Amino acid sequence: MLTLVQFLSVLLLLLVPVSSQVDQLLFPGFKDVVVGARSNLTLSGVAEIQKNGILRLTNDTSRLMGHAFYPSPFQLKNTTTGKVFSFSSCFALVVVPEYPKLGGHGLAFAIAPSLDLNALPSQYLGLFNPTDVGNFSNHLFAVEFDTVQDFVFGDINDNHVGIDINGLQSNASATAGYYADDAANLTKQDLNIKGGVPILAWVDYDSAQNLVSVTLSPSSTKPRKPLLSFHVDLSPILHDTMYVGFSASTGLLASSHYILGWSFKINGPAPPLDLSALPQLPRPKKKQPASLIAGVSVAVVVIALCCIAVGIYLYRKIKNADVIEAWELEVGPHRYSYQELKKATRGFKEKELLGRGGFGGVYKGTLPNSKIQVAVKRVSHESKQGLREFVSEIASIGRLRHRNLCQLLGWCRRRGDLLLVYEFMANGSLDRYLFNGAEVVLSWEQRFKIIKDVASALLYLHEGYEQVVVHRDVKASNVLLDFELNAKLGDFGLARLYEHGANPSTTRVVGTLGYLAPELPRTGKATTGSDVFAFGALLLEVACGRRPIEPKALQEELILVDWVWDSFKEGRVLDVVDPKLNGKFDEREVLMVLKLGLICSYDLPTARPSMRQVARILDGEVELSDDLRKPGGIDQQEGFDEFCHSLASSSFDKMSSSSYYGNRDIDTAFLSYGNSPRSLLHDRGETR
Questions:
Q1: Whole-number Cα distances in Å, 469 to 152, 404, 406, 500
Q2: Which residues, including other chains, have CB under 8 Å from residue 566's CB and lie 6 or more apart?
Q3: pLDDT tens track for 73-87
């Protein structure tokens, strides 16, 4: 039964004219909510209002999502000061997992700029997709109630409450619980979100203190101490008007997510909710009589025996069926069905082909359920990138998370077909804009941003992950651009991982001519230094607009690194800059990139900088000197550290104070460092 106050609040809400600005809402249950034309609640996905007045966001079906938002946006900012108003929301939630001990993702209270979120289910909670998660342009605030361990975004707690801004890596989080008011020392009491019982939650924002608070309780009384507090000014995050509501999703493990009641208020506390007055979930059915249980048990046994017999028959008949190997159980749950990817790419039609390489073709596709655009890499039977490289690509990039790495969404193996599913990069690969007379010419500002993006990705691979990841195939065709021309490093088919501090193992020499470090054919060991060498070649080709080796060029311009060095030595290094730029570039930045490209291309691995040092140079923290040494001036036995100590004392005047290798300041070597480019046309071993 509704109280008189609650009834009047709902009646007042329904009578508010469409043109007026609503600053409060109260749903003590959703039985009388209108959905559709002139609605007071907008539902999408699988969200529905049940006959008992409960809002059900998701059901026990895998990989689905549901949204429920108030249809009109709220005015959340003071139009004069631009400051976000204080606001408060109270809601009662229930999560009923299909498998209570495992959970199944979760739900979120969200403030979004649009009702169309273009989102995915599973770990994205129906709020984001792989392309936009973590972007500052999202302008989205959420409080998530997560009920499954999520290693993708760093949440290893399956009973997790987090405050999220523009992404799903929580800015602040805590294990679900509450502080009982009757406890003298306010000891925290645990709450189980996936326990199938109602939990009352409050989300409050104090504009004066720039403080977000999240409070939970198993009863209608709000505890004095919140579970979670986070200081943040939401004014830069939220727009003037925003939509308020809920989102939930399921993954491989499904859960039903319910909202029993909801209230919201701007510049004041949200109207209270009484758990006892809200609609309740139906109680579990009573146990059936023993005789019925016995009968059902016998029937189950008979059916099981029949299934076993049929299984044995099919096993003997279908001898060419694939066996699930051990590695398939270790690479994660993101396995798509072949039929799903075939439908997404319209049968792998030539019209959907984005490009071909030595491994096979890459096709554009649209996943049938989510309508998300993807790129499907199909490894051909004739490709040298066989099962080993296929597994390497899943095992390496499948666990990596960085804004400048191309996101692997999933994979598929069907007999001889090996398929990898990536996020779709709207602007393709970098090489199409640098070579072959592209219609669109990248400006220097765009090129410099791309260089810094790739450097950031390599720094993460070399130092930011739990293991050292050597990419082994850094080149322009493996640098992909999204719709905003942000660069992401892709194609991890040749990647190798080893522990920090360990020596990489010897392996066969693979890569692309022009990017292969000269020590690889001799040692057979791919290292971070060989990635730096390839990055140096990339630096030069981005600045010069041509490939590292150009057979059609003049004899003196055949090898790009030699041509750049000769031009630098003769004082006309800017002559090598891509003529398509028409002289519109920052000379200081271009000169820095060219000199850095020469340094990274040095023959001796120990004389090359690390990617951390490269990033500092690109950020302007370390300045490069024009006093480069003559090619061949560094002894072949002299390493990078030894060379640092051989510099003249005047070279140290500009050095940085940071140290990355013990007490030595390696950055000083960049101040007066030269290299001796070698011909790259000798035997490099196996290439592709």
A1: 18, 15, 15, 9
A2: 556
A3: 999 999 899 999 999
The rounded distance, in Å, linking the Cα atoms of 436 and 362 is 20
Domains annotated on the chain, with CATH: 4-277 (2.60.120.200), 330-423 (3.30.200.20), 431-672 (1.10.510.10)
The residues, any chain, with a CB within 8 Å of residue 536's CB and separated by 6 or more, are 561, 596, 597, 598, 599, 600, 601, 608
Question: What's the pLDDT score for residue 675?
Answer: 35
CA distance 156 to 160: 9
d(CA 67, CA 118): 12
Per-residue model confidence as pLDDT tens digits over 410-456: 888 776 678 888 889 989 899 989 987 667 899 999 999 999 999 99
Per-position DSSP letters for 618-629, written without gaps between them: HTTSSPPPS-PP
Above 60 in pLDDT, residue 637? no
pLDDT tens per residue, range 342-400: 999 999 988 888 877 656 788 999 988 888 899 998 876 555 455 666 666 676 667 78
Residue found by looking up tokens 């003037």 in the block: 240
473 included as an active-site residue: yes
Give the active site residue among 150, 158, 473, 578. Answer: 473
For residues 189 and 101, give the distance between their C-alpha atoms in angstroms, rounded to a whole number: 20
- Cα distance between residue 541 and residue 572, in whole Å: 17
Enumerate the β-bridge partners of residue 97. Answer: 255
Tell me which residue of 541, 667, 673 sits closest to 612, measured CA to CA: 667
